Amino acid sequence: MAKYNFDSCIDREGTNSAKWEFMKKISPYANENTIPLWVADMDFACAPEIIEAIAQRVDEKIFGYSMAEPSYYESVQNWFLKNLTGLFAVKIYFLLVVLFQLWKPLFKFIQSNKRGLLFSPCLSHVC
């Protein structure tokens, strides 16, 4: 695995960062001494591999929805089976608009009394 620099933070001022610039509007308890500890909005640079992948996509000049190859699903399933103890089967749903389609797989799991996994952090107004 590549090494990443977590000692260098990027100044987010002027970037419309909800975490820093709009924190006081989001929370009535926030003030200039508040340190937001958000997981989903980090102040580190993206990994070079992510930046490369996005740059390749930009070079294609098309931003439509794409479908994943079967090898993607197999890779994710294998990771879950290897890393989560007690997991015996994995079903992956491809959702184009996650927030509006999240109910589909959850509803199926609820109807069949099966257990499901919802990753956190989850948007507070959704969960």
Automatic annotation (TrEMBL):
Name the UniProt record assigns to this protein: Cystathionine beta-lyase
Membrane-spanning residues: 84-103
Domain of life, source organism: Bacteria
Statement: the UniProt record of this protein carries the keyword Oxidoreductase: no
InterPro entries hit by this protein: Class-II_PLP-Dep_Aminotrans, PyrdxlP-dep_Trfase, PyrdxlP-dep_Trfase_small
UniProt entry keywords in alphabetical sequence: Membrane, Pyridoxal phosphate, Transmembrane, Transmembrane helix
Cofactor(s) required, per the database record: pyridoxal 5'-phosphate
